[in-house]
Structures are given as structure tokens and as C-alpha cells.
Design a protein that fits this description.
The structure holds two protein chains of two kinds. Helix content of chain A is 82%, strand content 0%. By secondary structure, chain A is mostly helical. Chain A folds into two domains: 44 residues; 72 residues, no CATH class. The N and C termini of chain A lie far apart (118 Å). Chain B contains two helices and no strands.
Chain lengths: 162, 82
């Protein structure tokens, strides 16, 4: 009777041991999967944070470029308005009657300067007169604002320019 | 740019202009603009110049934006890898 009970107890213990072993292995596998998933989630979160941060930086940069562009547009419109204001003040017909020779010289000089503005805007190299210009008017009367642009790029002769 | 030479002509200097052109071996045949027309031509050129400047500003802005965006993207990738 005692031997039978011992065998039954042994069998029960063996069964419990087997179940425990299976449970341990299964838990370890689950833990490994969960750890791996957690690592993946951490990476995904980090990536998302980096993406958000990058997009925020991107947006800030786009806003900054847009602000600069708007400022330049205002400046360009103001430059363009300057000629219209000048022409409003001058009666070209009366001036041509009063001083044909002087006006002829002025319009030829103005045309030459205006053409040079196009050349400079198209990337032409500065000539000696422009490089050593002492101020914006000496640089080019038709596009004096380019003087500051070239000066800020360090392309003017600093020894003679203001 | 190619040279453009304006001749300002009025009732008082017609003879002078004719003799000047003759002395330069040129015939007296001119393409004329009124004072208003000349002013408008100047304004049109000024508008074109403004347009060129605007286009340049746009290109510079795009260039600046893409250079910075690329740098930000590269930095983000480096941080993720690290």
C-alpha cells in the first residue's frame, strides 16, 4: 500500500515537475519576445521623436526662408518703385525740348547702366570701376542696391570702398 | 549687353542731328518714342529686372531651405543610428 502511494506521489511530483519545466520555458520565451518587442517599440518611439524634431526644424527653416524672401520682395518692389517715382517728377518731353543734349547723355548713360544691372544680375563679373566704387551711386546709379550685396559678399575692393 | 544709342530729337535740334548723322555716315531715319513712351519703356525694363531679382530670391530661398533640410535629415539619421 505504501509502495503504491509512493509511486503515485512520485508520478504526481514528476507531472508537477514537467508542468513547471514547461511553464518556465514558455515564460522565458514570452519574456524574450516581450523584451524584443519593447526594444522595437523604443526604437520606433525614438525614430518618431527624431522625425517630429526634424519636421519641426524643417518648418522653422521654411518659415525663416519665407520671411527672408518676403523681406527681399518688399525691397525689390521698393527698388522698382524708385524709377516710377523719378519719372513722375521729371517731364521727359519738356526736358528733351529744354536740353536735348543733356537728356541724350543722361538716357544713354542710364541705358548703359540699366543694361549692366542685367549683366550683374545674370552673374557677370565685376569690372574695375565697380570693384573700386566708393559708394552705391558710383557703383551703378540704376541698381545701387547691388553695391551692398557685393560688399556683404566681400567682392568689393575694401581698401577704396566705404 | 549690346550698345543701344538714344538720340534725343526736338524741333530745335533736327538740323544738328541730321548733320551729325551725316558726318557719321548714317542716314536720317530714326525709330522714335515720345517722352511718355520712353518712360514706359524704362518702367517695363525695371519690371523685368524686378522679376529677375524675384526669381533669383526664390531660387536662393529654395537652395537655402534644401541645404538646411538635408543637413537636419542627416543629423536625425546619425542620432537614430547612434
Amino acid at each position: 500500500m505504501g509502495a503504491k502511494l509512493a509511486i503515485v506521489m512520485f508520478m504526481l511530483l514528476l507531472g508537477a515537475g514537467g508542468i513547471g519545466y514547461w511553464y518556465y520555458n514558455d515564460t522565458q520565451e514570452r519574456l524574450a519576445i516581450l523584451t524584443s518587442n519593447n526594444a522595437k517599440l523604443n526604437t520606433a518611439v525614438e525614430l518618431n521623436e527624431q522625425t517630429i524634431s526634424s519636421l519641426e526644424e524643417d518648418f522653422a527653416k521654411a518659415s525663416s526662408e519665407l520671411a527672408t524672401l518676403n523681406e527681399q520682395y518688399i525691397s525689390i518692389r521698393r527698388q522698382n518703385q524708385a524709377l516710377a517715382e523719378k519719372l513722375e517728377r521729371i517731364d521727359l518731353t519738356a526736358a528733351a525740348i529744354a536740353n536735348a543734349e543733356g537728356i541724350e547723355r543722361a538716357v544713354n548713360r542710364g541705358t548703359l547702366n540699366a543694361g549692366r544691372c542685367f549683366e550683374l544680375l545674370s552673374g557677370a563679373e565685376l569690372n574695375e570701376k565697380e570693384r573700386t566704387a566708393e559708394n552705391d551711386i558710383a557703383f551703378n546709379k540704376e541698381c545701387p542696391w547691388l553695391y551692398d550685396t557685393y560688399k556683404s559678399r566681400g567682392l568689393l575692393n575694401e581698401t577704396t570702398s566705404n | 549687353m549690346k550698345k543701344v544709342e538714344w538720340i534725343v530729337l526736338n524741333e530745335g535740334n533736327v538740323d544738328e542731328v541730321i548733320s551729325r548723322l551725316n558726318s557719321e555716315g548714317k542716314a536720317f531715319a530714326l525709330y522714335a518714342l515720345t517722352g511718355e513712351g520712353y518712360g514706359n519703356l524704362g518702367l517695363n525694363f525695371s519690371d523685368i529686372r524686378a522679376l529677375v531679382q524675384q526669381q533669383q530670391a526664390i531660387i536662393a530661398a529654395y537652395e537655402g531651405y534644401y541645404a538646411k533640410a538635408e543637413e537636419a535629415m542627416d543629423n536625425a539619421v546619425i542620432e537614430v543610428i547612434d
